[in-house]
Design goal:
Elements (H helix, E strand, L loop, with lengths): L8 E2 L4 E9 L3 E8 L4 E8 L1 H4 L4 H16 L9 E7 L2 E7 L3 E3 H8 L4 H20 L2 E2 L8 E4 L4 E4 L6 E2 L5 E3 L11 H4 L2 E3 L2 H17 L26 H10 L11 H8 L40 H8 L3 H15 L10 H5 L3 H14 L6 H10 L9 H10 L3 E2 L2 E2 L26 H20 L1
Antiparallel strand pairs: 1-2, 2-3, 3-4, 4-6, 5-6, 7-9, 8-11, 9-10, 12-13, 14-15
Helix pairs in contact: 4-6, 4-8, 6-7, 9-10, 12-15, 13-15
């Protein structure tokens, strides 16, 4: 059976394959456009290597069983499966397309996360796992790569139920796969393991370990000779109770762990005190709302309630990193998005020109024209990026030109050059160091057209 190629129609033209999104040990996922609605979906099939196996029919049956298990799950933090299709004997599972990036990609860009942000995602995935366990299922492959962040919200979505199995807690069962090294507990490394809710607890705790340290934990079956360093050893900012909860959640023997995800969430402290039930209202980035003051007389035509004095002071003192952070604070304040830490398209497309141009004026003045929003806009134009027809390849070229990417990798914010030796247009970063990458990249692309329109006024 041939693999599907970009622009290939399947199901008599109902779906047009776009590209390969990724693949695991058994499956491969494609993005596709569904007609006549023009809606983007994901279709998962078995990998070509699986298709060539003599027991392919059995493998497809297991694949269908995965889809049936997933289809029974109806939870805001679990990817939704819709239907199965049969394309010349190759079965495909049609699922919702989650617009966003996975936590592994996010972590690669950002480095270790703040504890509050990491706990937000772990709490959401924990709720999803509790729901899965109530259905009599285990996920068996929880890890940063299998958690997506839905764009435009702060919602984590658990994906890839390829290893999900239907068991009774404590039942001994044949395990189809050992899971992922670093995240799979000891019982998954054994040929026959005693599975339970605590199996997913280990992986969830290991995922939190990675989010807070940017380190994959020691492989479980090595830990009889190599101790697991507590996460606080790599990140002193981790609170003691969270450190202890992770260590307990990753106890080598199943009976020493929290026996349910809810118990683990209690240890983390996410069930105690006031909680936010609407994930769209969770503040991921800890911004303090700027103090509202009356603008000074020397700032004509500037939006009321915006004070530029601190930003100007920072720029005058060449405190470029602090000025970068303050710039983004002011921009969020200008559109009343401090509590969210990011801006939607409507705010970007209608951002007040007076504020944009005044901020740009300050940056250019104190950097001798090296930094500034309009400096970046000129670079954008020079490499022929159309503000009406953006694409990711040209955006990457721009990012390399201003020094946000090197050697085909995004820089961590700590590696930025916060002095005038930086590449032209290196700053301001528009929240590069403080907002999630899956929000930052499209936000900046949406903002360039507004800079052009402000300059033309």
């Amino acid at each position: 059976m041939p693999t599907w190629e970009p622009n290939q129609p399947i199901q008599n033209g109902r779906f047009i394959i776009q590209k390969v999104l990724g693949g695991g040990g058994f499956g491969v996922t494609y993005s596709a456009i569904e007609y006549p609605m023009g809606k983007l979906v994901v279709i998962k099939t078995l990998k070509p290597q699986q298709q060539s196996q003599p027991d392919f029919n059995r493998r497809q049956l297991n694949f269908v069983n995965e889809g049936m298990r997933l289809a029974t799950c109806n939870h805001p933090h679990i990817v939704r499966a819709r239907e199965f299709i049969d394309e010349n004997g190759l079965l495909g599972m049609v699922m919702e397309y989650v617009d966003g990036s996975d936590l592994a990609f996010y972590l690669k860009f950002r480095g270790k996360l703040k504890e509050t942000e990491a706990l937000t995602y772990i709490d959401q995935v924990g709720k999803a796992l509790e729901y899965v366990h109530e259905q009599g299922l285990f996920h068996l492959d929880v890890k940063p790569n299998n958690i997506l962040l839905r764009r435009g919200t702060k919602e984590a979505v658990l994906i890839d139920f390829g290893l999900a199995q239907e068991f009774t807690t404590g039942q001994i069962g044949n395990i189809a796969s050992g899971g992922t090294v670093g995240y799979a507990p000891i019982e998954q490394h054994e040929k026959r393991g005693l599975l339970g809710d605590y199996t997913d607890v280990y992986a969830l705790a290991a995922t939190l370990y990675t989010l807070l340290t940017d380190i994959v934990p020691v492989q479980a079956n090595f830990r009889k000779v190599e101790q697991l360093p507590p996460p606080k050893q790599y990140n002193s900012k981790i609170s003691s109770h969270v450190n202890d909860a992770i260590v307990k959640g990753m106890a080598l023997e199943p009976q020493d762990r929290p026996q349910t995800v809810r118990e683990f969430r209690e240890l983390l402290g996410v069930l105690t005190g006031a909680t936010v039930t609407n994930v769209n209202e969770i503040k991921i980035n800890s911004f303090n709302a700027p103090k509202v003051v009356t603008p000074v007389q020397s700032q004509p035509n500037i939006q009321p309630n915006i004070n530029y004095a601190e930003l100007e002071s920072l720029l005058r003192a060449s405190q470029w990193r602090e000025a970068d952070y303050k710039t983004y604070q002011l921009m969020l304040q200008a559109v009343n998005r401090q509590a969210f830490g990011w801006m939607r398209k409507e705010e970007l497309h209608n951002f007040p020109c007076s504020i944009l141009l005044y901020i740009d004026k300050l940056w250019k003045l104190y950097s001798n024209g090296i930094f500034g929003l309009t400096v970046q806009q000129q670079i954008w134009r020079d490499i022929s990026i159309s503000s009406q027809n953006l694409n990711i390849a040209t955006f990457y070229t721009f990012s390399e030109e201003v020094g946000w990417r090197r050697n085909n990798e995004w820089l961590k914010y700590d590696k930025f050059t916060f002095n005038l030796e930086a590449q032209k247009g290196h700053l301001p970063s528009f929240g590069y160091g403080v907002q999630p990458f899956h929000e930052w990249q499209p936000s900046l692309q949406d903002f360039f057209p507004r800079i052009s329109s402000c300059l033309s006024q």
